[in-house]
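Holo prediction — zinc ion.
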Amino acid sequence: MLILGIETSCDETAAAVVADGSEVRSNIIASQHTIHAAYGGVVPELACRSHIENLQPVIAAALEQAHVTLGDIDVLAVTHGPGLVGALLVGVSLAKALAYSLGKPLVAVHHLEGHISAIYLEYPAVPSPYIALVVSGGHTDLYYCPQRGHYVVLGRTRDDAAGESFDKIAKMLHLGYPGGPIVDRLAQQGDPSAIHFPRAMLDKETFDFSFSGVKTAVRSHVLQMRDTRGGRFFHDDLFWPLPTSLEWESHRNNIMASFQQAVVDALVTKTRRAVVQTEARAVVVVGGVACNSALRREMHRTGEECGIPVFFPSPILCTDNAAMIACAAAHRYQMAPRYYQEQCFLDLDAWPDLILSNVLAEA
Ligand code: KG4
Ligand code: ZN
């Protein structure tokens, strides 16, 4: 079974061809990072326009790389939420038009189910039950998954997503966009124990997260910092102009490492607690922030201490892509092929705040 996956929920225009739910024949991603970099974050209107321009060429490239034509595709799959409504609509509209004209079934996929499904492209036998930590630019959610396609939400962020906090710190200090990979790189040259930034809600019973406090703590710390001659590095919270001294660079790297450590500690501590409480047999970490080197290292260490395996997708499958959407669709389709063959998808819509629901419950 060949599935064409389409993903346009945020700032990546992506299409992929996946065979039998696991073999990635092509995975094309047109990133809009250069468009949004000037603003330090995604501008919804620009994202939407860029998807309109890029989606058809991206699909053509995915088909070409997989050496297939549209006629060879058995099932179409598209992200219908959550995300930016204008961006989602581009993918949903084109997917509906293609499915209708080809007379093929269309599977609507939840973006976070896509992220979690990415793990099955490389590790088809993840032991259940497992804890899934979804950490991206828009979400920080912790799920208990008794089996594939079943999601019991344990906690989520009450304010900023983990990736959003990386992006905002990088924007504040004019480091570039997206902030995660930049902070990760600078942190590798810094000392994670140099500054103690707060780890919110660690002493509370809840599995919820909060990352807005650490962002504010970094802001206050940088404003108060002084160089060796007692002068301030910055006079206001525009943090401009940036100092060029080696002394600043060293401080900056320590701040990045200490900030990253605070975020990683919160993510790892709550995940570990969830493992102990639910007696899960594995941990799955997905979403763009799953690329983070410190998170990967510390989560693996925690897995070893708990005696369970920890799974991360390859970096290209952590950030937004359409292979994960096709993979999720394959599972949903296999659970209920007739449902998808007979359903009328013409009223399918984009849902910016779609809730993640179980595969079997929906089918
Ligand atoms: O999953 P994704 O591509 O898009 C969303 O669904 O949001 O995640 C993008 C997020 C951005 O916030 C980006 O800064 C973050 O993932 N990210 C990272 C790293 N690479 C990407 N955060 C921390 N460390 C990284 N190495
Ligand atoms: Zn995502």
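READOUT: Residues 111, 115, 136, 287, 320 surround zinc ion (ligand 2) (CB under 6 Å).
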